[in-house]
Amino acid sequence: MLKVLFAIITGLVGAALLHLVIILALPYFSEKDAYTRVLAEGSRHTFYRLPDVRDRAGLMQDDPFMEVSVCAYDISQGPIRVYAQGKVPFWSLAIFDAASNEVFSINDRTSAAGILDMVLATPAQLTLLRKALPEPIDQSILVETQQADGYVVLRTMVPQGSFAPGASAFLSEAICAPFEWRQSQQL
Hints:
Elements: H1 2-30, H2 34-39, E1 48-49, E2 66-74, E3 80-84, E4 91-97, E5 102-107, E6 116-121, H3 123-131, E7 141-144, E8 149-157, H4 164-172, E9 175-178
Parallel strand pairs: 6-7
Antiparallel strand pairs: 1-2, 2-8, 3-6, 3-9, 4-5, 4-8
């Protein structure tokens, strides 16, 4: 009986210590999420190229055949437009919310003419846009998300060194910016 009581007390003390360690370590690990690291790259609505080595945010591109850019966004004040074009063998784009849940993805094989032209907005903003679709985005892919904050990851393939200039131009000219369509219309 004494051994059983000792085992129960040891288990409870061990569980209490484990929970204490987890609670004390939580702030350290909560600042290591992908969204926080993307925000540390710089201001929102700008694509930032990821280096081959860890940067100040802890992000890096670890695939030698891919070039990667990230852009944090906030659509609470209005939609954003993501646009890129260029001669690259392959590109893909993924949109994630602040909790790193994938919201949308596309690649050059599923886009019109291989051009990335997309508008990201909340459901209410898209309703207003669809009522009078402005000409600059009448051929754009309209993507709806419930979360106002998140990040975009744009990748392009560089299978050989000769593709590097095209990939670099594609990523550096990519746009991830607020879309202003009518000043009088409040989104």
